Amino acid sequence: MPKDGKPTRERLLETAERLVQRNGFAATSVDAILAESNSSKGAFFHHFASKRALASALVERYVDADLNMLRAGLDAAEAEADPVAKVLAFLGFYEEWSGDLTAESSCLYIAVISERDLLDDETATQLERAILGWRTAVADLLRKAYAARGLIDAPDPDDLADQLFVIFEGSYLVCRALGSPEPMRKQLRVFRQLVESLLTDRR
Amino acid sequence: MPKDGKPTRERLLETAERLVQRNGFAATSVDAILAESNSSKGAFFHHFASKRALASALVERYVDADLNMLRAGLDAAEAEADPVAKVLAFLGFYEEWSGDLTAESSCLYIAVISERDLLDDETATQLERAILGWRTAVADLLRKAYAARGLIDAPDPDDLADQLFVIFEGSYLVCRALGSPEPMRKQLRVFRQLVESLLTDRR
DNA sequence: CCTGTATCAGACTAATCAGTCTGTTGTATC
DNA sequence: GATACAACAGACTGATTAGTCTGATACAGG
Fold it and tell me: What is the spatial distance, in angstroms and rounded to an integer, between the CA atom of B50 and the C1' atom of C24?
């Protein structure tokens, strides 16, 4: 077996992810990625058939990491026994996580979604995998909490689950617009408070 | 006075807004804008000092339109007397508005925020104008509703107000990712339900 | 040691890009 | 109708772009 190219490929992906999150995909040239990762044209086009193929690889990689993030929250929820406490522990996990963010923190989804060119069937499927992954898991937590409290006319669990994903993305945008990571923390806190109000303050 | 160039400038802005929302700013070439708007290089650079200057003009224009959207919601709220009903009428207005969206609907903020290059002092100030405009007005509605219900340990009004903006942006992203305008409607509905639960379901 | 193949290095190319420049046209004012 | 100037039109340019191509190099198996 010849030389192992995985480290190089990984270095390219890491650098590309950082640059794409910062300036978008179209505004990130292959040359810029090469300069930042001390690599070469030959290396890049050996590992990726085209710049577009890099985008696909980036998204797939990112969705995997994102779903790992989901699992981490679910693990934190497992510590609680009561279904409502599970939901609140789950949301609390991300509230704490948000404390580690910086003003430069961003989300690859935003860069990909904001350029229609990148939304081919493949990336759309990956994004769906992420959104449905979160929806399914969170809605499951919510349904059990609804059942435990006998809630009936509460928001649709799927939609309420999606709200968390929506708040992540929206908060990332506001954080960048205002140049501070604080909005993410505050928004996750508000969402937790609203869900708490829904699950615990009923007559 | 020579020829009136406002129609041309406006046509360029409209076309540019559409293309930038679709594919992002960097991926939208000046030539593409010219082709779509049946204009010329001479016309473009007569009205805009640079492509960057176009971005600034686009954002300022868009923030104005966005704040008009805010005012439309506030007007709808005025129809109600009770502070809580005002809040719900306000949110209901956007829920209805979302019915007019298509799968192609998008938000210019997303395109601007996702490219750091575009976030200079000028555009950042414009984005702040939009975010703070919404925050101030919505928080005011919320504070009056809190007072009317005697709520004390409810979410911070400013943060809850920001949540609406966050949900708009996050939903736009999810709508594009899933290729449907439905998530916007559902998310606004969920948010209204959560706020309603907060403002009316307390012990 | 020889050979094959994956891994790279970097010069090169054709296309596209933002922006310039020269010239033309329309219109209000005198 | 002469003048002045805003409002264009479009050829042109230098820089940047994604992608190609020709080799060099490393490393495993025979």
Answer: 23
